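ok here's the first one, seq then struct tokens
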Amino acid sequence: MSVHEPAPTTDFAQGLANLREHGFTVVPDVLAGETLARTRDALYRAAAADRCRGREVEQFALDKGDQSLTQRVWNVLSRDPVFEDLVEHPSALAFVREVLGWPALLGNLSANICSPGCEGGHLHADQTFLGEPWPAAGPQGLNVAWAIDDFTADNGATRVVPGSHLRNCSVPADEMEADTVAMQAPAGSMVVFESRLWHKTGNNITADQTRAGIFAWYTKTYVRTQENWFLALKPEIHQFGSDDMLTLLGYKSAGFGLVNGRSPV
């Protein structure tokens, strides 16, 4: 198992090498300036609206402690147009195409906002929908996490066990408290990690720093999406979506989801 963290890199080939060896890679400076500011404002606005209307989700199974300190925002894709840009960002889709192949599906786009005092979460892998041993073909899913605020060791950055993807199994009961490292990344970074990597939300031990991240979950096409886009999606996203977006949402199909033998669109 790897004992070192990969250095952040904007080199795509090195990022892929980091994924193979460590299970994750940090790509800095993908969002910047006004784009990052608009995205951050849109996310915090959606989170505030959920709190105001009492629409916060009950305790999420992977979170510990007080739910009010670890807010989940679901169906982020329908909340503001800026999030559509994240889903099909060229830097994100480059990793999706290389690791999972194409076509692929967007299983979910959700946010995790970790406020001071949040107790983090339980160590897990995202490929537990498969029986073990997992396929030798490699990861069946890929997370692209967008650091909307700085991710630091103290403010609740996602924590991982580097190299754990090479175990090719879910977290054994006796390793739930395995040593982890924080995926530290400045705001605007893209953190890519594969579905077999053991990870969890970190503890926020700061007095005044909130850590917000948006997590795009992509999978191979045979995997059922976590979000039911056909029920949850705002109509205009389907109506005006690009070919890539419609493919990711399952509206353009190849092999699965056909209607009378053809893709629905």
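and now the second one, same deal
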Amino acid sequence: MKLIRKILFPVVPFYYLVTWLRNICYDLGVKKSASYHFPVLCVGNLSVGGTGKTPMIEYLIKLLKDDFKVATLSRGYKRKTKGFKLADGNATAETIGDEPFQFYHKFGNDVWVAVDSDRRNGIKNLRHLKDKPEIILLDDAFQHRRVKAGFNILLTTYANPYYSDFVLPTGNLREPKSGAKRAHVVVVTKCPKHLKVSEKNSILNRIKAESYQHVFFSSIVYSNEVFSKDASKILETLTNFTLVTGIANAEPLVDFLNSKNLKFQHLNYNDHYQFSPQDILYLEKQSLIITTEKDYMRLRQHGQLNGKLFYLPITIVLDREHDFKKLIEQAVKH
């Protein structure tokens, strides 16, 4: 794959030009963006792959749901339905996508969870609900310029920051680095727990934030327990299990489990992997399966895995959390 990306390097200028021109058209008003008189917060990234959007959306839900009626709006990647879909008791990962289903599974009726590849249409349908949301959180919509969010949170990983990357197909950027200027907040995600001040300053110098932008650093915290449909287990008590991952980068999770001196075999699949009947037959033979919360949303529908399928939750910890919350409160008010 790396060789193919290097071979395709001559394509990079064309991709750069197309995406740059598209952004210029929106910036100049040639292409129209819809603005709204209520809070619309966008969480996204410049790159393909996992930067921690789902934990950030969950963080915002927890922060806002007690004071406001909150809705999440996602594309519903790899779902088997079309158009606008609102999560209800019949929702599955197949009907709304694994990440939105994770939101619904975790928060239930405390929030509206909707999917629509056309974010304008999704917002319109959400606002037509009888109990309409007061705040809408856009999941992975930084490049969806047809909607102008009132507040943009841009995520970039510590290991692969956008400022050291190229646009597709050689790199992972969906658009030029200049797109970061649309962000109100930049969060460097998946940082080591004890990131040195000197390293933070080095990253800040590379980001070169504008005067209106704020930069934060976050790290992942793994739970001490794994959970199934109706049971839980202490992580340190697990022996000889099978780790199943279908995420963009499983390395941090593997490193964490290794740090606990746990013994396991790792089945590593592509991001948003759709498990085949043959995969499920193989997993049935395993005595204990540990997976991510996102993968659990796709695997839990296979009843034959009940009793042996558990997921490991994660949360995020932000530096200067008080300042971050204050910015969100200001964004909601204005």
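notes on #2: The chain is about 30% helix and 20% strand. The longest strand covers residues 214-222.
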